[in-house]
User: What shape does this take?
Amino acid sequence: MLLGRTKPVRDRVLAIVLATVGITLGVILLAAAGAAVGLWEWPPQPSSGFGVACGLLGGAIVLFEMLMLPRKWLRGKRLGSTRAWMRWHIWMGLIGLPIILLHAGFGFGGPLPATVMILFLLVTASGIWGLILQQWLPEKMLHDIPGESIASQIDRLGHYHADEAGRLITSLVTVPPEAESSEPVVVGPLAAELIAFRDQELVPYLQSGSYSRSLLATPSDAQQRFSRLREAVPPAARSVLERLQELADLRRRWDEQARLHFWLHNWLLLHLPLSVAMTGLMLLHAYRALKFW
Ligand code: HEM
Assistant: This one.
């Protein structure tokens, strides 16, 4: 979710960090003030009246946070805008953090409560991290790579371009049957160098990108490599080398896009399953704790 999209990214990220710290400290200070005037004890005890009240409130907030799931499944039904849900999800998530910390008396307790606490902290941290990533990655993707291919197609297109590059180099170093001249455009040691470049660097790079560990993944190295080859080949071959460089540049930009795409989505792989596991264990913890209270 983009917050206040007219504001610079730095301000938005700063606002998220300040809101997190501000709300956490604010709620804890309020609770400390309550303890100072004798409303409850300090530090809070999980099983005191105040501790249990914080636990129930924190649990209700967690259940509210989990409404994101049915809300997603029922998209299309009139349940309010996604934006409004996200806003509530974020604010309640931020308020939930100090309430759960107060409930736990800033400790971890036995194995089950400690597991729930660690999962809760991870879910909250991943949520905040994801929100921060959502502020700057989409903008960076649009800015760096306008209108480029989508991440899932990169490898397929890479193979397609590798075929093209292979064919182009072959056309420089061999004579096609229908050609009039009897000599290829590039001959001798330079032809051998081009073939080695095709097989050992360019084709693997276009097929697998940075995984190929090719020098072409680094813009300055690629620039140097292509300039040298362009100057060495006869003028008739230069346009082919320009096209090859274009293909390598495209692959580099796609890899960068795939990297950003990965970062934009991978936090949810933590946030979602951990939140489900945490809610299950939290309900078990609440059931056990309230039974013996
Ligand atoms: C400050 C705390 C939190 C923040 C900033 C936050 C942020 C987010 C964001 C940005 C999304 C939307 C992902 C998307 O773009 O689709 C999301 C989804 C979700 N969050 Fe949180 N969250 C927080 C706390 C929590 C907590 C405490 C829970 C559970 C107890 C939780 C459970 C979920 C679930 C179940 C989803 C739906 C995942 C999906 O779309 O597949 N979140 N959260």
